[in-house]
Amino acid sequence: MSQNAASIPLVNRLKFKHLALLVALDDARNVHQAADAINVAQPSASRMLGDIEEALGFLLFERNARGMQPTPLGVVTLAYARRALADLTRFAEDLDAKRKGGHGQLTVGAIMGAAPDLLAMAVAALKTERPLLHVCILGETSDQVVQLLHRREVDLALGRLTNPLQHNDFSFEPLARETLVLVVRAVHPVAGRAAVSLRELMEWPWVAQPITSPARVLFEEELARAGLGTPANLTECASIFATLQLLENYDAVAMLPESVVRDHVRGKLLVALPVEIGKSLAGFGILTRKEEALAEPAQRFVDLLRVYSHRLATEDNLAVGV
Question: What keyword terms does UniProt attach to this protein (predicted)?
Fold first, then answer.
C-alpha cells in the first residue's frame, strides 16, 4: 500500500470537531472541561477521543492521578491540530469576509510596550488604504507574541526573539530600539528628586514583567550589575495597561518604554526618575516564520512598518541634533 493510500482512512475520519477537541484537551487536560469548551457532552468527547486514537493507532494522552498528560506522539499530534485548526479558522474567516464584500484579514502579534507609535502609524495607514481589511492585534510581551507566531495564530509579529535557538524557526528584521525609563506616580515620595539611586528604589514596591520577557531579563541583569537582588515587594504583570493603572494607584516603581509613558508624564500623572537603565536591551523588529511567504496584506503591513520606522528614527535624530 502506498503512503498516500495508507493516509486516506485517517484523512477521512478526522474532522474539524476532532481538531477542536484536541486543542481544547491540550489547553484543559481534562475531558469534561474540553467537552464544555467545544459544546458537546462529555461522553461524546470521550468517544471522539477514542475514535481519534483508534484512527492514529496510538494513545495521545496518558491518564493518571495528575490528569491527562500528552504522550510523545501526542505532543506532535496536538501541535499539528492547533496549527491546522488555526489555519482552517483563518481561512473560514477570510472567506466569510470576502463573501460579505470585505478584503481579507491580517492578524499581528505585537509587544505593546515597545512599539505603540510605530504600530499605530502602520495600522492607521493600512486601514486608510484598505478600510474593509479586518485587522486583529494580539499579545503584550515578546514571549507571548513568539508563541502566537509558533502556533500560527498570527501572520507576523512585532517583537524580539526570546531564546538563542528561535532563529531556526523565525526570521528577524530589526526595526528600532526603545528607550526605557523608571517611573513612579507624581505624588510618590521620590518624584521630583534631582538624584536617586537604584539601591534606594529597592525599598519601594515594584511592578515588573514576567521573568520570561526580555525586559524583565534585562532588569534582573541591571540589578546584578549593581550588586542588588530582586525587589522583595514585587508584582509581576504582563499587561502594560494594568501596570500603568497600578503605578497611578500606589507608590510603586516600574521600568517601562518611554513611548508608553510619554503622555502620562506630559499629563503629570507619572514622573520619570533620573536613573539610567536598560541601555543594553536588544532592539525589536519584524518576526516571521521561516520559508513561508507572507500574504499580500501582511507584506504591505511590513512595508509600512519599515517606512514609519525610518521616519521615527529620522525624527529622533533631528530632535537630538544628530
Answer: DNA-binding, Transcription, Transcription regulation
70 and 137: one domain? no
* Residue range 171-220, pLDDT digits in tens: 999 888 778 899 999 999 999 899 999 999 999 999 999 988 888 888 99
Beta strands 105-110 and 270-272 are unpaired
Structure-model confidence comparison of residues 260 and 149, the more confident one: 149
Based on the fold, state whether residues 242 and 124 are members of the same structural domain. no
**pLDDT in the model for residue 319:** 47
Within-domain flag for 89: no
Determine the straight-line distance between the first and last CA of the chain, rounded to whole angstroms: 70
Is residue 14 in some structural domain? Answer: yes
Q: Which phi and psi (to 5°) does residue 192 adopt?
A: 90, -5
Helix (H, G, I), strand (E, B) or coil at 209: coil
Q: Each residue of 266-275: pLDDT tens digit?
A: 999 999 999 9
Q: Are residues 294 and 311 in the same domain?
A: yes
Of 285, 240, 282, the residue nearest 259 (C-alpha): 240
For the chain, the helix, strand and coil percentages under 3-state DSSP, each to the nearest 5: 50, 15, 35
pLDDT at 102 over 60: no
Does 266 fall in a domain? yes
Spell out the SS3 assignment of 48-112.
Answer: HHHHHHHHHCCCCEEEECCEEEECHHHHHHHHHHHHHHHHHHHHHHHHHHHHCCCCCEEEEEECC
Say yes or no: 16 and 152 in one domain.
Answer: no
Residue 275: all three cell numbers together: 536613573
Count of structural domains, the chain: 3
Cβ within 8 Å of residue 248, ≥6 positions away? 185, 264, 269, 270
Residue 300 lies in a domain: yes
280: pLDDT strictly greater than 80: no
